[in-house]
Amino acid sequence: MERTPNREYKDRLFRFIFSDKQRALSLYNAVNGTSYTNAEELTFTTLNDAIYMGMKNDLAFLLGLELNLYEHQSSLNPNMPLRGLIYFSRMYDTFVRSSRLNLYAQRLQKIPTPKYIVFYNGTCEMPERQELRLSDAFQTAGGCMELTATVYNINAGYNAALMAQCLPLRDYALFVAAVREQLLTAASIEEAIRRAIDTCIHNNIMVDILIASKAEVTDMLLTEYDEAEVMEMLREEAWEEGMEKGMEKGMEKGMEKGMEKGMIAAYSNLVNKGLLDAAEAAKQLETTIADFAAAAERHGCPVVI
After folding, report:
1. Of the N and C termini of the chain, which has fewer Cβ atoms inside 10 Å?
2. pTM of the full predicted structure?
3. Rounded CA gap, 125 and 280, in Å?
4. Cα dihedral across residues 188, 190, 193, 198: positive or negative
5. Does the pLDDT of residue 109 top 60, yes or no?
6. CA–CA distances in Å: residue 116 to residues 28, 61, 112, 209, 289
7. What are the Cα distances from residue 143, in Å, to 131, 136, 146, 148?
């Protein structure tokens, strides 16, 4: 059976890496500034079944008096607090049942304190740390509940202290970045993954996992979606990047010129990244290759033909 790439590979890989108790404990210590050493004190409560619209959570565990929910995101998602509410409701329901708590008792029944963390490493700009609140989704003010998701940006150059305190998280982020970089030039998704794995092993990044579970990691990145869809995703990202840059500069000189420059910049970006040939770009712009190249040069976004 032909293996095909999985657009959601980062989420699956995150679960795979941190389903190890020692790595999960390292991540907890880094986030909370603690120094727990006994990984057996940690009890996983990750939901493995779809609970709502096919959603699953990445990592959840009990440690001490806290119920921790850790999620990974490769795209900006303001709905994480609502998703967290659904996840926590299911986990608390399981906790109440397993602990045989009497919710009708006259004595207050104590439950673990919830802590919700999201790790983001997508390509959009985001601060090192931000908080998303459930109340922002309420249609009117004055709701009776709140849930906060703390989002950490784990891209290169962000949250250096956090990454230094949790090497598995740092290596995970570096590996994802390596795959993303290789996708831009590799002939296939499988080649990109192979290159990224070889590069990371050579640079002592995630070596223990990549050597011991190389086939498993590869398979996680080669399921569900075909190569054409991944390349289309890259084209969309390149298009959006070009349009955004063109529009930002174009606003200074007028909307009409900005739109023209945005179009030229978008197509130049696609051609320069090898995701579209110059002839097709010129055709889409209803011009010749020479005129396309001249316009790109004139607008400060030269195209390599």
Report:
1. N
2. 0.69
3. 30
4. negative
5. yes
6. 11, 11, 13, 26, 52
7. 18, 10, 8, 14
